[in-house]
Design brief:
The chain contains 21 helices and 7 strands. It is α/β, with parallel strands linked by helices and 532 residues long. The protein has 4 domains: 184 residues, no CATH class; 73 residues, no CATH class; 105 residues, 2-Layer Sandwich (Nucleotidyltransferase, domain 5), CATH 3.30.420; 133 residues, no CATH class. Helix 12 packs across helix 14 and helix 18 packs antiparallel against helix 21. The longest helix has 33 residues.
Length: 532
């Protein structure tokens, strides 16, 4: 124990005496306090008595790697002011310390010259007789670990030197320090690099998002479905996904972005569609509010899923005296009672910030729940504002007028019934439809002056004014229809007799005159309906 205490006092002694003028090394006896001389790279450490490896053994409180105890774990490189530790930009590897044993140099007994060439990161502290990693000491701030003896405390466990050197050289902290030192030597700011990469990713994501928005706007504008019937995480067959794949054929960056499947889930796509619709609606409402006064148009209908819905449209005049009309809502109805319809209309106007007092006109169909003078929607609206004038929808009135005229005229009603039966006979059978199309092509090739014939169109069951297109299809294909009916009547099925009866009617003057008369009436009515 006395020897250990003497050795501890030997290494903890801070008193140094130098004689630079005479260039002599001062030696003192072992019984007195041992003193070291550390004056740069050319100074040597000697004692009056050789120090053996056993003299360098630490106490029981020291670690296995030769660093001080955790209670005394203070970086020696931070307290040493000698040239060995004051400048860690270059590894301190003094050659003059590698002298022979006869000169009594304590460093020569443990530090080998081959270590300098093999492990270039070794840096020697002559005041503490420890080895440090000069790379890790330079960039020790922010390393993955700060408990390495090559960074704090120093290394002096010479028995395991090569093993510890290899372990430290392959450690994650040492590799991280090398990477940081290389970046620092290149003059690159890591924070700036991260920020630049982040900005590049944001620009790329914004570009990809804009492509997605363009696809959504296109599908919404054309009224096409966005997703398929069985679209899930394994099968994306919808129009939106396929449209993105089409664009990705010219953009590898988009192809990579699609694989992440960001922003293409049904919930996000529906949200984007809602946001786009709200943007369009806000622009329309801005124009309506600028005009201040407006008229209200509403109509109720039932969709294919048998849900009652009401469409609400606004009609206004701008500062240039141009009339505009736009739908502002398509809302589902719990029932079709007058008060329910009125509540839905009023709520829609309030949500759109359109004061009901600025509504100066309302137009509905002739149904009692809409146009009733006592409890209809128009009566409830007048209770809110007296200036809201009710007008029966002109287009609906015209449609009812045409319907009544056709029913009163036997000539026109027979014409409509003939067209209905003829279209059903030809179009509802692929065989007869193909026969009719072949006859159309033969007539066209035989007569170069013949115009391109129009196809047969069915009659609209609700809007009578658009039936002129079906009448026009029969008149333009009159000759081809007669040839087609002659071939159909040669058969022996039930359709042969029906074709024979239709052919007899087509050969009469009465039918041809009724077709011409019906086309004139319905064409004028359709043009009037468009202008209303």
């Amino acid at each position: 124990m006395s020897q250990q205490k003497t050795l501890r006092s030997f290494f903890s002694s801070k008193s140094r005496v130098s004689d630079e003028a005479e260039g002599k090394h001062i030696t003192q006896s072992v019984q007195t306090k041992n003193k070291f001389q550390c004056a740069g790279q050319t100074n040597l450490l000697e004692t009056d008595e050789p120090v053996t490896p056993a003299d360098q053994v630490h106490s029981d409180e020291d670690s296995d790697d030769g660093c001080p105890s955790r209670a005394q774990c203070e970086s020696i490189t931070d307290t040493c002011t000698c040239s060995c530790c004051s400048n860690f930009e270059v590894a301190y590897q003094p050659k003059d310390l590698l002298q022979s044993k006869s000169q009594g140099n304590i460093f020569a007994r443990y530090i080998q010259a081959s270590w300098y060439s093999k492990y270039k990161w070794i840096s020697v502290c002559t005041s503490s007789y420890k080895i440090f990693c000069h790379i890790c000491c330079i960039v020790k701030q922010g390393l993955l670990t700060s408990k390495s003896p090559f960074v704090h405390g120093g290394f002096s466990n010479w028995k395991k030197a090569i093993e510890r050197f290899k372990s430290h050289e392959g450690s994650v902290a040492h590799k991280e320090a090398i990477s940081k030192l290389q970046v620092r030597s290149q003059g690159v700011n890591v924070g700036a690099m991260i920020t630049k990469q982040h900005e590049a990713e944001k620009r790329s994501n914004r570009t990809m998002l804009m492509k997605l928005l363009h696809c959504i706007r296109y599908l919404a504008r054309q009224g096409l479905a966005f997703r398929g019937h069985h679209e899930d995480s394994f099968a994306f067959e919808g129009n939106l996904y396929q449209l993105l794949l089409l664009q990705a054929s010219d953009s590898p960056q988009l192809a990579t972005w699609i694989k992440k499947r960001d922003y293409i889930s049904p919930a996000i796509v529906n949200e984007i569609i809602t946001l786009c619709g709200n943007t369009v609606l806000r622009r329309l409402l801005g124009d309506i509010q600028a005009a201040k006064y407006f008229s209200l148009i509403a109509d109720e209908a039932t969709d294919l899923s048998h849900n009652a819905q009401i469409c609400i449209a606004i009609r206004w005049v701008d500062s240039s005296y141009e009339v505009h009309e736009a739908a502002i809502g398509l809302l589902q109805l719990p029932d079709t009672k007058a008060f329910t319809l009125f509540s839905v209309v009023k709520d829609c106007l309030l949500r759109c910030s359109l004061p009901i007092t600025n509504c100066i006109g309302q137009a509905y169909d002739g149904a009692s729940n809409m146009s009733g003078v006592r409890s209809g929607v128009q009566a409830l609206m007048k209770k809110e504002t007296d200036s809201c004038l009710y007008v029966h929808c002109f287009a609906h009135s015209l449609n009812l007028c045409i319907q009544d005229v056709v029913r009163k005229s036997e000539l026109l009603s027979n014409c409509i019934e003939f067209i209905l039966q003829l279209v059903q006979l030809i179009k509802f059978s692929p065989k007869r439809l193909n026969l009719f199309q072949n006859i159309q092509q033969q007539i066209r090739f035989g007569d170069d002056s013949a115009a391109v014939p129009s196809s047969l169109r069915p009659l609209c069951p609700t809007r009578w004014t658009v039936r002129h297109s079906a009448i026009d299809g029969v008149l333009n294909n009159y000759k081809a229809l007669m040839f087609c009916l002659r071939q159909v009547e040669e058969g022996h099925d039930e359709y042969a007799a029906k074709a024979r009866g239709l052919l007899i009617q087509m050969e009469s003057f009465e039918l041809y005159f009724s077709l011409k008369l019906s086309f004139v009436v319905f064409a004028a009515a359709e043009q009037l309906s468009i202008n209303l």
